[in-house]
User: Fold this.
Amino acid sequence: MRASGPAPPKAGKSKARRVIGKVVRYGLLTLLAAVVLFPLYITVVNSLLRPDQIAARPPKFFPFDPQWDAYSRAWDGGHMSRYLVNSVIVTVAITAGQVVTAILAAYAFAFLEFPLKRTLFAVFLATLMVPFEVTIITNLTTARNLGLLNSYAGLAVPFLATGFGAFLLRQAFLQVPSDLQDAAALDGYGHWRFLARVAVPLARPTVAALSVFAFLGAWNQYLWPLLITEDDEYRTVQIGLEQLSRTSIDQLNVTFAGVVIAALPLVILLLVFQKQLVRGLTAGAVKG
Amino acid sequence: MARVVFDHVTKRFGDVVAVDDMSLEVFDQEFLVLLGPSGCGKSTALRMVAGLEDPTEGTITIGDRVVNDVEAKDRDIAMVFQTYALYPHMSVRKNIEFPLRTRKVAPDQRTSLVMEAAESLGLEKLLDRKPAQLSGGQRQRVALARAIVRRPQAFLMDEPLSNLDAKLRVQTRAELIELQRELATTVIYVTHDQVEAMTMGNRIAIMADGLLHQVGPPQAVYEKPANLFVARFIGNPPMQMVAGPVVRIDGQLGVAVEHTVLPLPPEHQAAIERTGVQSVVIGVRPEHLQLGSDGVLPATVSVVESLGHERHVICRLDDEQMVISRQPSDQPAPGEGSMVRLVADPAHLHLYDAETERRIETDGLPPITPRSFPADKARQ
Assistant:
């Protein structure tokens, strides 16, 4: 008697609880998304308002009369075009360099046997603990001695290899079964071909994630480009933004337009690679 | 197709001896099974043939060529792995085609060879799928297709059925035997599963601790295990054993076990006299151990396991040692807890020297060793 009675109400109760749980979860996520997206939204809105509207109280949350000319003024007058080109050159070089060096180092740590392998890997990891700011003076002196001030090489070379990239990819390569390497060896694949045709294709999500990280890091650099460049010819977009904000104090909308222009490549990149980025971040965290 | 010869091959990893002075000839077109428990060195032996490990000492010959210094890709052998080792990012077609591509076979020829291999293993409809979209059995067949597609001199298989479920394993076992006969090729097959070894091999080679213990046709190894390790390893349930010193009573030799003396058949007594051993181990297969009322060894029935077609009666001797008897299920089952007396069929007693653990031959023939099995005997 006791067993048959309460079953249906219990099922209804648990269903209601599930629905409420879902509503609460989605509500929270929506709130968090709004918190994250609001600054981006307000930046775009401000770039389309007149300077006096930006300062107005209460603030305006929608540009009813968008001022598109702020973008052309930032692009031409603020030299954003030049800075963007510089940033693209430096970022692509750094990203490509980091990915290539990380792949090679990670392959060695994952698949090759050589003396002091573990010690060397520990040294690689140790470099992750040293903040860039600690080495910045030494790097600057070295760059100056090598005549790299005011050059693309000076902007890119110190960042062409990272311990983080080698670590991330090594973990991905360790997931490649050793039987695959044996099978490939039986079929005549040496290290280079195994790397290019098997290991890297299998670690593609991690390579993509590393590329995105490297791109983001390089694009957002501020201190190093500021120190190593002296004129507009080599300055990158982040320095350009700072200059723009100083020269357009009375035209905040132009500064905001510059910010939007500087952020646009990153937004596009994230939209294109978001799947790989998430997969790369959770790699190894979930069994499967 | 080719023979494969291990000549005094040793493999060391630092201080660990993985394979110890192994000499073995695998005959042309033979299906040889390397059998042994985990870590016995069987996979290392196979990997040395493949060229994935280098022997520390000794030579390996494939066909008429010593291959110690020949690269894996130039040995003309194919290997099937336990994990199948399919490239996950390539389709079934590309996986099968892979060995041909790396050997720069012309595209037309490649296509026809891939189709041929796929057809022989029933994979035609799966060619465009990725390995992740296949079942375990299908993946296994793709791995086999990749191995046969370039017609190598010999196949090496490293526990290829271990990842399949029991039912599929029985089916694939038969398919593998058919395939080997069809291709008339040499196969070296590594497994820890004695059922696979007994059912598939022309001969089995039993290894433990890097040593080759016995090589011979499955039935011969089952009937005459060369030493105590093989006797315990082959057969399920394993051979039942009791140990004791040899004693002489009224001119007759027997073995003192607990409070009783087990009499020995005349040929066993003669063998003991001939070899002069002091202490022996007597073994008997569970199917040759009967429960009766007039046997010499008293025991208590502990558990009766029914498997449908047969029954395992597990008894305890007075010293708590467990002894298993195998009975046809049509015989009346003894009650659990009942007292019985065990009777061993004298024609099927196995005798071992307790000190050396080697078999004492009772028919005057020398024991079966790796080097005393010529090709013509292996064919029987």
